[in-house]
Specification:
Helix content is about 25%, strand content about 20%. The chain contains four helices and eight strands; from the N terminus they run E-E-E-H-E-H-E-H-E-H-E-E.
């Protein structure tokens, strides 16, 4: 059985509890958790890497376009173009869709837009966004597609106490964490 933790960039990623599962982080992690791979699809992240001379030390899952850009920008590392370029998808959506396997279990941490309109990202401190549309409205239907496509995978959405996520699927459950958010 595939067991994966995917850590997003929402404020609630501070609730993450390390486990023995395979860990994928999105973009440039701003936390101190150990991880096995990165999920990066955004060109702005690659430009930030070049400007800051930052090179990933773990495999990077990405699109072919982002892999080609990192080559042009002389960013080292092992980049694997396993995602198809898809409009309105974020790095977490790609990671969850790719890692979902029959009989799998995917734990989602730090995906605050799954239960709120808060689409801010810890990446905003590194890669500022001039404008942030209500992305949760784009992402919720895509999450539903992923959950529907991978019915044999159990998805666990980790949230702070007292919130409810927006998904009602037999293969989606919620784990409300007792830890206070930082």
């Amino acid at each position: 059985m595939t067991r994966v933790d995917i850590i997003g960039n929402g404020a609630s990623n501070t609730l993450y509890t390390p486990s023995d599962r395979y860990v994928i982080c999105c973009n440039i992690p701003q936390h101190g958790y150990n991880y096995n791979a990165l999920s990066i699809i955004d060109a702005k992240v690659v430009y930030w890497m070049r400007s800051n001379k930052w090179h990933p030390r773990v495999p990077v899952y990405t699109t072919q376009e982002t892999k080609e850009l990192r080559l042009k920008q002389n960013i080292e590392g092992d980049w694997f173009p396993i995602y198809n370029k898809t409009n309105h998808w974020n790095a977490g959506l790609h990671a969850a869709n790719y890692m979902a396997k029959p009989q799998g279990e995917i734990h989602l941490w730090g995906f605050d837009s799954m239960w709120s309109k808060d689409c801010t990202s810890q990446m905003d401190t590194l890669v500022p966004r001039a404008h942030r549309p209500p992305l949760h409205q784009r992402w919720w239907p895509i999450w539903n597609e992923i959950f529907d496509r991978h019915t044999n995978t159990q998805f666990v959405i980790h949230t702070p106490q007292g919130v409810e996520h927006a998904f009602s699927k037999p293969n989606v459950r919620q784990s409300q964490e007792n830890t206070e958010m930082a």
